[in-house]
Design a protein that fits this description.
Blueprint: H1 2-30, H2 32-35, H3 50-63, H4 73-89, H5 91-101, H6 105-114, H7 119-129, H8 150-155, H9 171-189, H10 192-201, H11 203-211, H12 221-226, H13 232-235, H14 237-253, E1 264-269, H15 275-281, H16 285-288, E2 307-313, E3 349-354, H17 361-367, H18 372-378, H19 381-384, E4 393-399, E5 404-406, E6 411-412, E7 415-416, H20 427-441, E8 447-449, H21 455-466, E9 483-485, E10 488-490
Antiparallel strand pairs: 1-2, 3-4, 5-9, 6-7, 8-10
Length: 499
């Protein structure tokens, strides 16, 4: 009886374990946070405690090579507030802006880089100014994504015509004007932060504020924030932009396309509320609102129509659509059936390829026009280990010496800019046009590129720029997409017949 009972218990345990495994498997199929986001197991929500914000701002300033502006407690406090505002209270609207930015951000970053302006600024400034809205108009008459007033727009080369033409709504031309403005003012103030401030306040007003900072050299935020020369929206502008810059870095570091959404409860407070009295009512006050730690009374922010006090916050929910994923249609693109006819000429190149989470050997071999057998032969560790792992480095030998990267700035057979996207052109249409352009323009070349080019292959090398799109998704114009390929047909030369 005892042995029979023990056997029954063991069977029941095994059944129970199997049942739990099946439940988890079912959950992983229906819950995208479990299935598609397993690469984000170390996911951390946006942090806005003072220590973290101070460290992140210090790193940001170092990356910007900012030597004329010092991070102080006042700056940390207000940046902390705006991170809380954008990622908790304002998160739904923030996510709409972030998704809207994807169509424009690649071009803006490229333009800003040309003028030596950091990519965080390329995101933060239009995020704060207009929410990446090309038709945004302010009460003061500023227009477009970069909110230029008439006089400043004309000074920086934007046309405003009586017939209704207004280049302030052209985000590409406005991005150039904005980058020039920031570059010029950075030269004036020797500071990226103060050049951002001048974009909102104007060069003269920033100069007046600095000259009226008393004994302080004007290179810390405290005296600037207290300046009576600035209005409420103006004194909040710098911390707003820096908060947006840190949010951009957070998204990029965590490979997210949107902010995780936390549940929360909050209320709006006006001026005069004592922090000490709030602390008595809520022991977790500083944990939820760290920006209040060094304050005696709350500051009623103009941007949020008062002070937003968090009274409760839940764990942020991370869903599959928030993670920058690789769409199913483009996973491991299949090679063109004719790829076997590609001939290698000259000294071969070797590519060291870092394996991504969506890769398999068959897909990689297809991308590079080789075979699984050749990959395993050149990478003996693949035979020994139990499959392919993200982060593995694979040597791909025997690539054609003509392998190179083409982009919108490349000169293809004497034709510059042939490979930039056109406004609302789909990836599918872009691919067809690129292949047609290369083949037509390079008709006299002994090598023919583009034989194996496909939307999936183009997407493979540009998924960080393109985001989660489909082959028929309209694209922004002027995107400089990278096209890596060794797929050049070696055309048989025509031998003249000797009579």
């Amino acid at each position: 009886m005892k042995s029979s009972t023990l056997f029954s218990i063991n069977i029941n345990k095994k059944i129970g374990i199997i049942f739990l495994i099946l439940i988890f498997f079912a959950m992983s199929q229906t819950n995208p946070a479990l299935s598609e986001n397993r690469v984000n197991l170390n996911f951390k929500p946006v942090a806005f405690d003072l220590n973290t914000v101070e460290n992140q701002l210090t790193e940001l300033m170092a990356d910007w090579e900012e030597t004329a502006f010092t991070v102080d407690d006042v700056l940390v406090r207000h940046v902390s507030y705006f991170i809380k505002y954008y990622t908790v209270q304002h998160v739904d609207k923030s996510n709409k802006i972030i998704r809207r930015s994807e169509k424009y951000l690649h071009y803006i970053k490229k333009t800003f880089k040309k003028y030596g302006i950091a990519e965080e600024v390329a995101f933060a400034l239009p995020f704060v100014e207009s929410g990446f809205n090309t038709d945004a108009r302010s009460d003061a008459g500023a227009l477009g994504m970069f909110q230029f007033l008439d006089g400043t727009a004309i000074h920086y080369g934007l046309e405003i015509m009586d017939n209704g033409l207004d280049e302030r709504t052209n985000y590409k031309k406005s991005a150039v004007a904005c980058a020039k403005y920031l570059r010029n003012n950075r030269r004036v103030f020797a500071s990226t932060v103060l050049s951002i401030a001048s974009y909102h306040h104007g060069t003269q007003l920033v100069t007046d504020v600095l000259l009226n900072c008393g004994d302080d050299p004007g290179r810390t935020f405290g005296p600037i924030f207290k300046s009576s020369i600035l209005g409420p929206f103006s004194r909040e502008y710098i911390p707003q932009c820096l908060a947006a810059a840190l949010i951009y870095r957070y998204l990029k570091q965590n490979r997210l396309v949107m902010l995780p959404v936390p549940g929360f409860e909050s209320k709006i407070l006006q001026a005069g509320t004592s922090v000490k009295s709030l602390k008595k009512k809520s022991p977790s006050l500083y944990q939820l609102n760290p920006d209040l730690q060094h304050a005696t009374s709350i500051y009623p922010y103009a941007v949020s129509n008062g002070y937003i006090l968090l009274t409760k916050i839940g764990k942020p929910a991370l869903t599959a659509k928030m993670v920058r994923t690789y769409p199913d249609w483009a996973k491991n693109p299949d090679p063109n059936p004719d790829s076997g006819s590609t001939k290698i000429k000259g000294l071969p190149k070797t590519i060291h390829y870092v394996v991504q989470t969506h890769n398999d050997l068959s897909g990689i071999s297809g991308i590079f026009g080789t075979s699984v057998k050749v990959l395993k032969f050149g990478n003996r560790f693949l035979v020994k280990q139990d499959g392919l792992h993200s982060g593995d480095v694979i040597k791909i030998n025997g690539m054609a010496p003509t392998t190179r990267v083409l982009d919108g700035d490349s000169i293809v057979c004497g034709k510059p800019g042939a490979l930039a996207t056109r406004e609302d052109e789909t990836l599918e249409a872009f691919c067809k046009r690129v292949v047609k352009t290369i083949r037509a323009d390079c008709a006299s070349c002994p090598w023919q590129m583009g034989a194996n080019l496909s939307p999936a292959l183009i997407y493979y090398w540009n998924h960080d720029v393109l985001g989660a799109i489909q082959p028929d998704t309209p694209l922004a114009g002027g995107l400089s997409l990278k096209i890596y390929s060794d797929y050049r047909w070696h055309k048989t030369p025509v031998v003249s017949q000797v009579p």
